[in-house]
Design a protein that fits this description.
Elements: H1 9-29, H2 41-49, E1 53-60, H3 65-71, H4 73-90, E2 100-103, E3 110-116, H5 129-143, H6 149-154, E4 159-164, H7 173-209, E5 212-221, E6 227-236, H8 238-244, H9 248-254, H10 258-271, E7 281-285, H11 296-307, E8 315-320, H12 325-341, E9 344-350, H13 357-363, E10 367-370, H14 372-375, H15 382-397, E11 401-404, H16 410-419, E12 423-424, H17 435-441
Parallel strand pairs: 6-7, 7-8, 8-9, 9-10, 10-11, 11-12
Antiparallel strand pairs: 1-3, 1-4, 2-3, 5-6, 5-12
Amino acid sequence: MEDFDPFGTADQMELEELSEAVRDEDKLLTRVDLRALHAYISELGRQVNERECVGVVVVDASELTQWERQHGSAAFDSLMGHLATALRQMRGSALRIEDTVCLDADGGEAVYVFLSGPREDRPGPSVDFEQVVRRVRRSCFEHFEGAEWLLRNALDQVAIGSSLIIHNDSVDPRREIYRAIRKAKSDAQYNHNEVQRQRHRVVGHMIAQRKINTLYQPIVDMQTGGIVGYEALSRAAESDADRLGVHLFVAASKADLDGELDQTCRTLSIRRRPKLNGDVSLFVNSLPPTFYEPMRDLEQLLDAWEADGLRPDQLVFEITENITHTQLNRILPSVAKLRARGYRFAVDDVGTGESNLQLIADLEPDFIKMDISLVRGISSSSRKQALASYLLELAKRCDAELIAEGIEEQSDMDRLQSIGVRLGQGYLLGRPASVSEAEELI
């Protein structure tokens, strides 16, 4: 008797076509909507002359040449669009409204922020360049939190630095600007190298000392408003995040400690969990090696889970759809063993075009999580709506529940519900919270 396969070649082709259409649409949304330096150079020269422009911050993506060759110019443009958006959103908070944000050139690979100094009629401290750089780095990091993993990885190679501009009347202010940019780029590379050198120590210390914040974000039944589960999310403390400069798991991967971090975060997520009343479940992210035999650490963790009176079906392991065929074949026996005990599985980040439906068919997940990039703006995108409907149908065919991640707007949630999506996750439904705050929600 042939194995049941709910998906075929036609399904794979249709999913890829829909995903590609959505990516083409998103390119327009993440385009680099900044003018180039040459459009501002005369006005900036005047500001330098008048002591109104005191320095420059450079966000330099020039080290991503190989990354662009591997992933394409559209991916690089998307990266630059995210950087530009993050910096624009800082104006009026970490940056002043008067500060100028621009590209190095048309189709360029760096974003410049020219900082305005305190006005004479507004006495105050001079610009703290180190503080501005920290704020810019933090804002870029936070903006990329919701971006796809490809872009979060790329952020690791983006360098940020600054340089002071002190005008000399005997020097053309435009040349002072160009020289300050070169100094800022040099400062950016130095800062980046320092972060790279300390990263292994920081991540290693975090793992050894378990200095990891565990937050829990609700997964909600959008029809009833009831909480059906929590996804455990691991974050670096703010001081450590600044030292890492990138997402915690990106930093661990660069330090070759992703496996150790994954194991530690899973253990902390389960042990620190909120009270799971009724049918509320805990979703934990897991790298494929989690399920490589002999699984001694995982077995001990599950024995403790059941000893605490929790049911196996209240624990859901999330596996990214980027798992390879080799990894999948290796973990399938363990997955079957755990499923026989009652534990459940979810496939994460589905619908970005990277997935192979055969992987979903083989894994037989209980949940399919629709990628965050497909959810944002779905109310105004017919292509995203078509892809969501398609994923919902595929989920039904393999007897799984579809979960929409990244819901932030009421209009998006309304559209998802009209399509038939029942489960959702995102800031609109509940932000990641401490265990005590999560228990209050329950």
